[in-house]
């Protein structure tokens, strides 16, 4: 198990008690709209890469899907395992690296990235997406959710390794460690070859109250393995 690609700030946060209890609405929508309907939910496999404390997978497991998740932060996985056990839910939750997923080829129907892969550099991001392609079945869908280069926090950081921005001191992403902010071209390049882009949305929330004017910007991308 190699988790050296994961920023240690996340283990620090989870060890200090950071936890998300409920799923992101965009993930709920993605799963409901894209899960295969020709099989019972118990036979539809959902993987989250960078699952944190497992709130998205908690929702999916409660809805009857077969779920798995990996994260580089051991404290997050331990929290998720305890929550699943307390509620009688099943799930394969492991500490692992994005670039070495501990799963068989073509073993998942859906893969989720909810702003996890944006926390690594460009080369690690590309290797991680290649791993996701390996474990996803042909015709399976992948939700990719990196932050955009139009985010105010991009300009508020300094240049880090492998295209990341570090020491972010402005915008909504202060204190989250390194971030790789993606342009539209970056998204298209990372997803070239194996993938067919089915939806490419750029989301912006603008804080208009002065002096805190800022832009929170991210990509919501759905691709299909072809």
Query: How many alpha or pi helices?
Result: 7
Approximately what portion of the residues adopt beta-strand conformation?
A: 25-35%
CATH topology: Rossmann fold
**Main sheet: strands, sense, barrel:** 7 strands, mixed
Q: What is the approximate shape?
A: globular
CATH class: Alpha Beta
- The total beta strand count reads 9
Plain-language structure description:
The chain is α/β, with parallel strands linked by helices. It is globular and about 50 Å long. A seven-stranded mixed beta sheet has the order 3-2-1-4-5-9-8. A two-stranded antiparallel sheet has the order 6-7. A hairpin with a 6-residue loop joins strand 8 (195-207) and strand 9 (214-225). The chain is built from seven helices and nine strands; from the N terminus they run ααβαβαββαβαββαββ. It has one domain: 3-Layer(aba) Sandwich (Rossmann fold).
Write the layout of secondary structure elements.
Blueprint: H1 9-15, H2 25-34, E1 45-49, H3 55-62, E2 66-71, H4 74-86, E3 92-95, E4 108-112, H5 122-135, E5 136-144, H6 152-155, E6 158-159, E7 165-166, H7 184-190, E8 195-207, E9 214-225
Parallel strand pairs: 1-2, 1-4, 2-3, 4-5
Antiparallel strand pairs: 5-9, 6-7, 8-9
Short description:
By secondary structure, the protein is α/β, with parallel strands linked by helices. It is built from seven helices and nine strands; from the N terminus they run ααβαβαββαβαββαββ.
Which tags fit this structure?
7 helices; alpha/beta; about 230 residues; two-stranded antiparallel sheet; seven-stranded mixed beta sheet; globular; about 25% strand
């Amino acid at each position: 198990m190699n988790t050296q690609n994961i920023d240690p700030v996340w283990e620090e946060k989870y060890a200090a008690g950071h936890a998300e209890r409920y799923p992101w609405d965009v993930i709920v929508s993605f799963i409901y709209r894209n899960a295969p309907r020709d099989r019972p939910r118990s036979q539809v496999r959902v993987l989250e890469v960078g699952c944190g404390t497992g709130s998205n997978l908690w929702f999916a497991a409660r809805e009857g899907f077969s779920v798995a998740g990996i994260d580089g932060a051991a404290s997050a996985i331990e929290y998720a395992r305890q929550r699943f056990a307390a509620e009688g839910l099943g799930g394969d939750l492991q500490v692992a690296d994005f670039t070495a997923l501990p799963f068989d080829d073509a073993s998942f129907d859906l893969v989720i990235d909810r702003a996890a892969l944006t926390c690594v550099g460009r080369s690690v991001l590309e290797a991680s997406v290649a791993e996701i392609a390996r474990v996803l079945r042909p015709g399976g869908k992948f939700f990719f959710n990196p932050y955009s280069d139009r985010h105010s926090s991009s300009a508020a950081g300094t240049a880090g390794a492998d295209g990341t921005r570090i020491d972010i001191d402005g915008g909504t992403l202060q204190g989250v460690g390194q971030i790789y902010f993606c342009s539209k071209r970056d998204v298209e390049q990372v997803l070239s070859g194996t993938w067919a882009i089915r939806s490419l949305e750029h989301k912006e929330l603008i804080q208009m109250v002065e002096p805190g004017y800022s832009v929170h910007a991210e990509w919501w991308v759905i691709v299909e393995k072809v």
